[in-house]
Amino acid sequence: MAQAASTSAPRHPAERGIVGETFHVIIQTLTLLLAALLFSILVEWGGMVFFWPDEGTAHSRDMLAAELTYLNEDFKRSIVTTSPTLFAKRFADNFYHYGFEKTGFVKFMAWMKAPPFTGDNRIRMSLRKIYMPLSEYLVAAMTVSQVFAVRMAVLTLAMPVFLLFGLVGVTDGLVQRDLRRWGGGRESSFVYHHAKRFILPAVLGTWFVYLSMPVSVHPNYVILPFAVLFAVAVAITSSTFKKYL
């Protein structure tokens, strides 16, 4: 009977260590970035078909120009780098270089764009028939990828904002915790655990929403609301932390 009871007991999954948890977070982050990039490209393609068919690739080029304008006008200083605009441009250029030039994708497109000549092989002729109707979509995908890289640079430069808001949230939460502790207030583990779950999504949600937006929006309109949500989650988590360790 004891053996049967032990075999029927539910097995809990082994907890990950520091290395495993770090690796898990890295994989989640890379998956999130890849999903945001693919989603932004698919949305751009859908817009080219249904919403802005007359603009074509000009829509993605205008987005890239607008993102660079926001950098030139509003990102003059940063804790991360002395020249935010140059940092973002280099990041976008490197993304384009390693993503499209090093992989040979640019050469492939130039080879496909070249006019056919006498004696051209059938494989190239067949590929060219497939490529020509899709050429604008591929160019738009490349431009959207550059927009994606610029936005990644902007988010990297904006991460100290989350640290600042988080510090304010922790300070306010610990003050509220001390008031609750000395005032004999009641604890709520339910609120604590649910507020704790919103901390990481508040940060990752900023990246996914901003990176996948199909239109150009000033980064402050996306980053600041998520930073406030992050600060509120941190403050509630700190304030509802158990009174006695």
Write structural notes for this entry.
The chain has nine helices and no strands. Helix content is 77%, strand content 0%. 23% of the residues are buried. The model has no long low-confidence stretch (mean pLDDT 79). With 245 residues, it is mainly alpha-helical. It has one domain. The chain has helices at 2-8, 18-51, 58-74, 84-101, 105-113, 122-183, 189-196, 199-211, 220-239. The two termini are 40 Å apart.
Low-confidence stretches: none
Largest sheet: none
Query: If helices are DSSP runs of H or I spanning 4 or more residues, what is the number of helices?
Result: 9
Tell me the distance between the termini: 40 Å
**Principal-axes shape call:** elongated
The total strand number stands at: 0
Domain count: the total is: 1
Which range does the strand content fall in?
Answer: under 5%
> Would you list the SSEs in sequence order as H and E?
HHHHHHHHH
Mean pLDDT: 79
Keywords for this structure?
245 residues, mainly alpha, 77% helix, elongated
In short, what is this structure?
This protein is mainly alpha-helical.
Topology:
Layout: H1 2-8, H2 18-51, H3 58-74, H4 84-101, H5 105-113, H6 122-183, H7 189-196, H8 199-211, H9 220-239
Helix pairs in contact: 2-6, 2-8, 3-6, 4-6, 6-8, 6-9, 7-9, 8-9
